[in-house]
Amino acid sequence: MSSSIPTLDAQALLAQVRALGEVGSGAPGDGRTRIALTDADRAGRDLLVQWMRELGLDVRVDRIGNIFGVLHAATHEGDRQPLMIGSHIDTVRNAGALDGCYGVLSGLAVARAWRAAGLAPSRAIVVAAFTNEEGVRFQPDMMGSLVYAGGMALQAALDVVGIDGVRLGDELARIAYAGELEPGAIAPLEYLELHIEQGPILEAEGQSIGVVENLQGISWQKITVHGTANHAGTTPLRLRHDAGYAAAAVVAFLREHVAAPSGGTTLATVGSLRFEPDVINVIARKATFTVDLRDPDEQRLQAAERRLGDFLVELAQREGVEIETERLARYEPVVFDAGLAAEIEAAAVRLGYASRRMTSGAGHDAQMMARIAPAAMIFVPSRAGISHNPREHTDDAQLVQGAQVLLEVVRRRLAN
Amino acid sequence: MSSSIPTLDAQALLAQVRALGEVGSGAPGDGRTRIALTDADRAGRDLLVQWMRELGLDVRVDRIGNIFGVLHAATHEGDRQPLMIGSHIDTVRNAGALDGCYGVLSGLAVARAWRAAGLAPSRAIVVAAFTNEEGVRFQPDMMGSLVYAGGMALQAALDVVGIDGVRLGDELARIAYAGELEPGAIAPLEYLELHIEQGPILEAEGQSIGVVENLQGISWQKITVHGTANHAGTTPLRLRHDAGYAAAAVVAFLREHVAAPSGGTTLATVGSLRFEPDVINVIARKATFTVDLRDPDEQRLQAAERRLGDFLVELAQREGVEIETERLARYEPVVFDAGLAAEIEAAAVRLGYASRRMTSGAGHDAQMMARIAPAAMIFVPSRAGISHNPREHTDDAQLVQGAQVLLEVVRRRLAN
Ligand SMILES: NC(=O)NCCC(=O)O
Ligand SMILES: NC(=O)NCCC(=O)O
């Protein structure tokens, strides 16, 4: 081993991104599905832990299943001032290979750079993979980092019941990732996260690097409409209490009267919607759907929530249905650490990569970690802005640029 | 056995309605689910066949699974002029006990009346239970009677694939109800069907008997919207191709711009709607839903179909989604036999039951049988107009009145 400057092994990084992307992959075109705490998630975790061990990292798992690979510092003092690089490896259904994984594996690439240089870092480098970032099965999203940052009690998180009726704590034990470390035990001095943008901005502007200054607020609700099942052919309009129509009216309202008039700052999405009994000639007795509202401005996000709430009251009255709402997640907008953002921007300039400051549309673990440490994020472009889709793509060269920026920032921070 | 006038055994009828209602029943309040050609349907069929045999009826099953219980006439000549009384015993999901079953079991009650009187009827009485009237699993609805009446080729019906991906012919063989009789082989001289109204009119007007003069047209389609899965937090409005929103917009359009402005003659229902991947933070890639349009007037039904079609074209263009439509069923309005309707009305008058002429909102096997024989229907009230719901209810006394009218009409027809 030659003692030199830590440098990126781009091929090793890209190979790991591809290999992890195979875990949980289905039919061609279907992408991969590694929903939190499923067998596929376990397989991904096992591979990650194996890679951490191969790099000689000290692997720790906490009680909510977050995985940490610690590259110890040269000194005891340095070990007490860890720099954490994290993201997640769970996915949505039929996902791309990059969302989350790219950030975790770039963290490994940073650790590998020190290893390959034959150096112990001046401060510990901790590579983190947080549990259940996507929030597809268990809500809220970003759950592992939220618990880690003290924003949700561990027991409450373990007791969350998923959309499949299974308790999170039971699944965690089943896949053997209920660790012993107390969440929060490794307190990072700073937190960095590299991620694909998942949106169209960088590509549209021909930029290589996004310096993420802030992250929009997220409001998730589950809404259940209780109507009356009745015959599609015999029930006159005035006697209908159609839970399906009421749900559809909400979906249309959100798009047409909440998102569109906001000029685009408020986003509203109904990604999940189910009817019961879901039969062609039966007026729906029940409709259950999710609402995802986002806005970088807390006041506007609250205004959107109020408009939805008012509409639900009016609709329930008008249609003679009962409407229940349940809060699944609520995060205020977050402003990242200005010093770290400046550091990222400076690194991009030094490397000669075009960059721009931006807001994150997606939620990320950095958003939670910002509660307990200075945090910032680096974005790379997403082709056509497509994510949460098997067609999610970033060119290899762009992935490497992002990892170079991360490495450069870590080098700087560890040189301080 | 005393030789006397055939009279109704009301208790036997009500007991059979209750007993058949137990087959396929689930948790309390969930009603029963005997969807066509499932194991529960088989259990219902087995019970019906057992009851037919107990009455000494000659049981025949045709190639589409329709079941016939023949009470032979006193003469060979009378056997060639059968009067058929039919309906169905399949149900929707979480159904009431009466829809269909009441009609079939009233047919048995008529046969029982002749048996108990120790008489052979002057013409054969054929009690029919048609396959897959509800059309929940396999479309179109009224399939058994449609095939019987020559409106759909047997092979095409056997090849229909259900919403669960299973071929109808395979299920029919599996439950051992693929009979040998050619559909249509027993050609009825006339056809009668007794059914609950499934709507609110008789109850609202305090009438006991509905003399059904006609039956509205039914248009069923399956619509599939193909959009693009993308991230709920990062995808700006202008880049969304949200299959879920597009589907919801159609549901709202049908109610607000097709059904409501028609003044209530056109009914539009979306009873089934599914999103893919159905995930909270993923814009739906695909939405699949059914459309049920009805109107007693063919021109207005066609106008409703055209307005829907025009809206789909405009919507696909506006949202950048692809929309596929598939026809599941299309029946023009039917006018029943005026002579039989008059006979029903006269019977109600003789029995002293208040009656009114009316249109059927629901589809019925009589609608298909009207293609090959003079046909008519008798309705009894449905409490609060509720049907396709476990709360479907008709008072016992009203059920008995309907069966009395049926028996009276049959006596008259057989006396001719
Ligand atoms: N990055 C990412 O896709 N996070 C999932 C949480 C969200 O919906 O924003
Ligand atoms: N009677 C009845 O519920 N028939 C089912 C077909 C329809 O949807 O009208």
TrEMBL record, chains A, B:
Species per Swiss-Prot/TrEMBL record: Candidimonas humi
Protein name per the record: Zn-dependent hydrolase
Lineage: Bacteria, Pseudomonadati, Pseudomonadota, Betaproteobacteria, Burkholderiales
Gene Ontology molecular function: any one: hydrolase activity
Peptidase M20 dimerisation domain segment(s): 216-312
UniProt keyword Transmembrane helix, yes or no: no
NCBIfam families the UniProt entry points to: hydantase (TIGR01879)
Record's keyword terms, sorted: Hydrolase
